[in-house]
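Q: Structure tokens for this one, please.
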Amino acid sequence: MNFHELLNDNTIVKGKFVVWSDADMLSSIFDNYKKLKENHAFGVILHPEILKNYNHYQRELKEHPLIMKSSPPSAEIELTNRCNLACVQCLRSLGLKPYALGDMSFDDYKKILAQFPFLMNLSLNGFGEPTMHKQFFEVVEYTRKERPWCKIGIYSNGMLIDENKAEQLIHCGLTELNISIDAAYPDTYKRVRRGGKLEVVHENIKRLVEIKKHSKLDLPLIGINFVMLNENEGELVPFVEQAAEFGVDFVNCITYASYNWGFRNNRTPKNYRQELDAVSKRMEELNVRCKSFPSEDISWTTAEKEFDCDFFWGQDLRITHEGEITLGCCSPFKETFSYGNVLKQPFKEIWNNEKFQKNREMGRVHRPPNKTCASCDEYCKRFFAFENEVSLSNIGISC
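A: Here is the predicted structure, written as tokens:
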């Protein structure tokens, strides 16, 4: 009996095998199978302790215990918080400064990675452009050697990918390479991603696709990202058309949910749905794959929805370039949002410390534990503007 036959068989398998009779479990198994296949990660099957931790973590994520016995299977490790652009949706655009700018040393990276032996999904991102790190390619190659089963991905603005870097990005061991663009036209790009040039990014993407094709490699998967901002309304369809022209592996369309540094969404539910409907049709016509697509269900913006966030259980764990443990969604000010430093204290001790337990306790009763969580647009119930509003900020609306 092969895997696909097993999925369609209702027979209960006994003995040392798992009993697969629940439809939801079968669906989950199939989804995980597709991920392993796409990411060439079947090697994880040779490491049962990794799979055991993953299954344990998924159970705990649903149960929301105060004490976590499993380790997060996903994390962001910030190699640098330096960046060559000043994007409109970034806190830097308002003159706010995160913790001191700098890079993580290679030795510190090795110390940090060693504390997360069960990682299955690693993003080498934070509040910076990862390709600016001088030892970026050495870090990726080292990680691939140490965690051969791990999905290793980055988000880049793509401006620095010259021919030499393009060759290295395709061959260094990355699983996924996301280029964030957020615009279809040069003038919009200048307003959104200040300091960059769309024409340069487009040429760099074409170069990456060509090198990958010439090398006859399946990985890294190359994708381009579009965050729905006020400035780029109406450009999602031409963006997808450009993706089809470039021949990238996928696109991501993301609804921007800001926190407490000032960005305000001015879209209405009507124009939000109209643009999503139009791009859905166009993606189907062009056979463009979208890995991340906003839900047309906007019930999460209603006042009736309770605060309910999994970040306190490690769903988006971030380690800054200085070793601070923060939540991946939050303001990057370590003085307020650090749970501990893994270069000064083992992660095992930080993971269930007083701060984490306090936030989990409040999260379980649907209370945001800090100002940043309370100001998150996903939970402040005012993500959309009213039909007759031009700008929420103009009328002093705040959460």
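A few notes: Residues 1-21, 387-399 have pLDDT under 50 and may be disordered. The longest helix spans residues 198-215.
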